[in-house]
Please model this.
Amino acid sequence: MGIPELLHFQTMITTGALFLGIIGVSFLSDSTGTNSLIITLVIACLALGLLIFSADFFIEGAKGLARRGGLPEVIIGLTIVSIGTSLPEILVTTTAAADVASKPEVADFAIGGILGSIFVQITLILGLVVVNKGLKIRESWLKRDGLIMLLAVLILTFFLLTGYTLERWESGILVLLYIIYITWLLMHRKDIKLEEEEIEEDVGVRGSNWSIAAYTIMIVFGLAFAVFAAHHLVEYARLIAIELNVPHAIVGATVSGIGTSLPELTIALMAAKRSQGVAIGTLIGSNITDPLLSIGLAGLVHPLAITPAGFELIVYIIIPFTLLGCIMALLMMRTSYEFKKWEGYSLIIMYIAFIIAQLAYNRYGMPF
Model:
């Protein structure tokens, strides 16, 4: 199928409608001089929807071109899919970083957004997948990617806690580590393909009969819409935080964290119905991309310093919960290499406790 068929593709239509919706509501707000909280919320929701759909559009194009280029399906899943599903986080954090010089509090939003996204994926989303269908864990997912995920989160935490600023050189190290990880996967692609051969069909490409021109348009338009949506999401989420007197770190860790993790939730739930390992691998792969590539690129744009307003929330609540969530999930995976439904409920409860802790902080502050 070519470009004419692409114009009638449901994702293309939805993406275009959301883009026009943002333009229309913004124009209406400017022309009438109305700048209410409701309009701000509407634009933020439209931007979040556009970000998710445009990221999915980009993923389809990238996967399709990669497949036509002869890359094994499993490598596509471990590299392009993980980067693609993390595209909302990448765009939101880098867009936010560009504004840090004039709005230092946006750094709290970026840091909280990445850590919140990691925590959402490893607790709430993983918990929902497990509750939906208990999962058996492949040992290779845990020993290779699971430990790398934990190491990535620990390195990011170390950088954030030393000087409470993610410097450019530290960001460079994070990006370099991610490049080394991807390079290692590509160098061992034959071994990995043999190891995961029986689940290869689960990372297939939907609509793989598109032409090269159609895939190219998917990539170009998907990325352009995603950049536009990320800019608006950051700006209007910041306005919401100011209007409601909510710390930027909370907005980043909850609203942005859940919203930008929706691609991982969709893919993981779909994979869980057909596979006993791909769903876990999808979330782990994304949680390697986020603490290394996503925030690393943002830190290269501008150093991210935790502000005094967001210090206690990030250092005493968000970071400890994120580390605890990763360790708890990996330990559950290690027990008989199987995820039971009660463990899924435990992860969901942990996320609820995270939300309660943030709400309590916002109302009463730290108890010490």
